[in-house]
User: Which sequence fits this backbone?
């Protein structure tokens, strides 16, 4: 999926205002050629590194899950169960628009992958319009000593435009791309005040990866710095439902659209 941020900026341009705030209906099984005619054996697994106390990134992941559901996708969010993570996520079970949260005891990637794969197989049966299983794991698990590092093959890394954050993101991307030639590593820039800042940050990341790794991460757009993000975190309500016309809600929907489109074309488990 050779895509850079410049290829997806059109997703983030202002849209004409509509007379209704209704969520657009996702295409049905017969709206696109062939899609929905045959159910996948399992939904794709998308791994997202989130530190135990990273409230902002956890909120972004959960809000992306809700946006995938708004677009018609079947989505489950799988996290490891620990005392440090219980405050990051909603309670287990079904949430807004059918978004599912599953907490599972796991001490390593292999255990978490096994639990997520069970969910991916079970939920594929009612995912005629596609879907994703979001697998959240501690960033330090991206550097295990054993072969478990290759179990998860589709990753989304979040980065701000801060230089140190970009360096950390590059380090994770380098490890993943070098340890598994089949890995697909995506990056979403968040917290940017301007599109140009996000584009510049991703360009730097992609340029270094191209020169040193001969591979580049995939751009999954940007999430703008918006006060509504923090208000939604405090309220523990999805941004797309609490403030549907905010820049943050539109950006989340656009990133979710990119993820769902790639999930529908992929069988990465």
Assistant:
């Amino acid at each position: 999926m050779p895509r850079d941020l410049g290829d997806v900026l059109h997703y983030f341009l202002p849209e004409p205002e509509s007379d209704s705030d209704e969520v657009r209906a996702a295409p049905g099984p017969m709206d696109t050629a062939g899609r929905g005619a045959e159910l996948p054996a399992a939904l794709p697994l998308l791994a997202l590194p989130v530190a135990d106390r990273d409230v902002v990134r956890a909120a972004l992941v959960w809000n992306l899950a809700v946006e995938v559901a708004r677009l018609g996708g079947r989505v489950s969010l799988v996290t490891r169960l620990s005392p440090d993570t219980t405050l990051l996520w909603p309670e287990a079970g079904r949430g807004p628009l059918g978004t599912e949260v599953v907490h599972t005891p796991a001490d390593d990637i292999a255990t978490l992958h096994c639990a997520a794969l069970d969910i991916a197989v079970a939920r594929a049966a009612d995912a005629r319009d596609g879907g994703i299983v979001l697998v959240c794991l501690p960033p330090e698990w991206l550097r295990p000593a054993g072969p478990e590092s290759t179990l998860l093959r589709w990753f989304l890394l979040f980065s701000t435009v801060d230089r140190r954050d970009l360096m950390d993101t590059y380090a994770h991307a380098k490890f993943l791309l070098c340890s598994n030639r089949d890995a697909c590593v995506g990056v979403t820039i968040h917290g940017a005040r301007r599109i140009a800042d996000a584009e510049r940050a991703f360009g730097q990341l992609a340029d270094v990866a191209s020169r040193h790794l001969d591979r580049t991460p995939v751009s999954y757009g940007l999430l703008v710095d918006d006060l509504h993000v923090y208000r939604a975190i405090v309220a523990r309500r999805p941004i797309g439902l609490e403030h549907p016309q905010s820049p943050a809600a539109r950006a989340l929907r656009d990133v979710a659209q990119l993820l769902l489109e790639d999930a529908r074309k992929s069988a990465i488990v």
Summary: The first strand starts at residue 45 and ends at 49.
